[in-house]
Amino acid sequence: MSDKNIHKTGSVELRSRAEERLGAKGGIAYPPISVEDQLRLLHELQVHQIELEMQNAELLKAREDEAAALEKYTDLYDFAPVGYLTLDRKGTIRAANLTASGLMGIERSRLIGRSFGSFVSGKTRSAFAGFLEKVFTSIARETSQVPLLKAGNSDLYVQIEGIAVASGDECRIVLIDISERKQAEEVLRLTNEAAEMLLQANQAAEALRLAKESAEETARKKSLFFANMSHELRTPMTGILGMLQLALVEDLAPTTREYLETTLSSARSLLQILNDILDMSKIEAGKLTIEEKPF
């Protein structure tokens, strides 16, 4: 018997004894398999090992992609141009991004656990409470505009958009800084008020101008009336004075002369009054001429 056959017989014997010992320990004894089956089994194990290695590589790649996506999402969340907050039903802040922290002027770690309502201006807290209630009771996105307290000052005006999550325990809100828009609206409002006041002032000035022109026209007509009246009255008065003076030249009875002299004196007084009225009319009309005479 050759050495090869002796070695083969020893291997079979060893395997048989090992299987007997395995059976004694409660193991499952399998029937002996051929070398061809052993090679096929070894091939299957190697293929399975390669498959496991490929699956492990894919799993590592998926984990790396997940980590990269999470990092990208974190960057997008933290550095978004608007503020993001997560609130519970009581309005307590559960999460916040860096933009929201910057808008509110408080570190993110100090925001978590605080009531968002405490940052709302006191005059609009009731309106915000109503908005938060609508967010949790409505399936649609709700919107509100409130001023926020920033470093003790109400210098931040935001538009809040909120929607509840599917569980209904939390809601996510977006903060959009509209302070500049509100300031522009306030400037526009003040400008419109100023324009309205200017228009009213112009209307008042126009009314005053018309009243002034009307008063001037009335005064002009009055002066013209007085001038015409004085002129028309002076003409017959001149005749009266002339006739009285001629009558006094005649030989008259003492009583008649006294009557005529009294009448002449009264006529002269009346003529002086007419002259004064005419002078006043000329002064108002700006046509008074000053005469220079020796005295």
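Above is the first protein from milestone M3; the second protein from the same milestone is given next.
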Amino acid sequence: MALQIDLRQLVLLIASSVDLVGVDDVLHGRRVAILAVECAKRLGWNEEEQQLLFDAALLHDVGVSSTRLHCRLVNELDWAEASLHAERGYELLKDFAPLAHLAPIVRYHHTHWQDLQRDNIDPDISRFTNLIYLADRIDVSAHPYYAENSLLLHVQEICARIKQYRGTYFAPELVDAFLAAAQAEAFWLILDSDFIPQYVNDMGRSADKAQIGLENLKQLGSIVAAIVDAKSHFTSEHSHGVARVARFIGGEFGLRGEHLDRLEVAALLHDIGKLQIPDEVLESPLKLTPYERAIMKKHSFATYQILKRVIGLEEVARWASQHHESLNGGGYPFHRLAGELPLESRIIKVADIYQALAQMRPYRNPLPPSEILQLLRQMEKALEIDPQLVDFVAGHLDDCQSAAVGPQGS
């Protein structure tokens, strides 16, 4: 039976990935979606409109990869270049047919209401995107009070702040709906981290059960890989390079058809968890401290936690999250032994190592293929990686190098 994946689960996969950029606060996208829908209910929007709004709001920050940028987004109301990530989000979604209808909404979610009117943006797009902008800035205004559990003490302050921008940043009727809804404590209490999962589940139960197949899944994997790789210019194209190497090796080791496609998807998604690594750790030119290494070791487990939620991606989740495991049991985060590591996980590990060594890093230049092979041989002797795979790389160095660096690095 051909693979079919629930589209809403994949929207949540992307949203959860992007929310990792918040590091210590990974609920921004979901809170914005909830705030937008609650305002839409006050406005009398129908259920279909609420669902469309919810999906667009979940993905509104799909163009954000950097923890530095995320910090500005949740601490500043507005600044000159705030809309650049919205444009990037539009570019990521516009050619992905299942979600392309959300791209224009994402594109303008940092555009002021008065500018939407001046530029004659489609009225339907304008009301959706401006409501997401409003919800986004409400969450930013509330952000300082979540950790200290004092949000209800600052409701009138938040309302007064938003009201200042009625008719300029935000459409008057949207602000009025927010101000009315905000008087109920429940409007704010639903933003508590304990209640958010249930709200998301409830929205999912009433959503259309759209499904996508393997080709769309590969395209979505490429989108997520682009988000991850954009986190640092040092990791540009890393996930795509790992996917190319993994697919090349997998094909030579007898994987075919859908099996090989799933391996490619797992390789594209293997580093989702790195979105939660602070930029300064990922780009450090120095040897990582024990604390920084502990932070880094969280990323493959985060990858597993996100992917395993999607029904049909259980194997992909295991393969992707085991790319730092070792045959000797000394890897992380699960400390699997050789007998517990399938071929697919072993392939992704070797592909990940090869591509990373072939690419510039803040602490070294790219290594030539001969030196990469020497390091792989050392890891083979230490029982960290599969000897058969190292032998294969040794016999196909030029092909592995081409796959690792791609057309841009050739």
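Note on the second protein: The chain has a mean pLDDT of 93.
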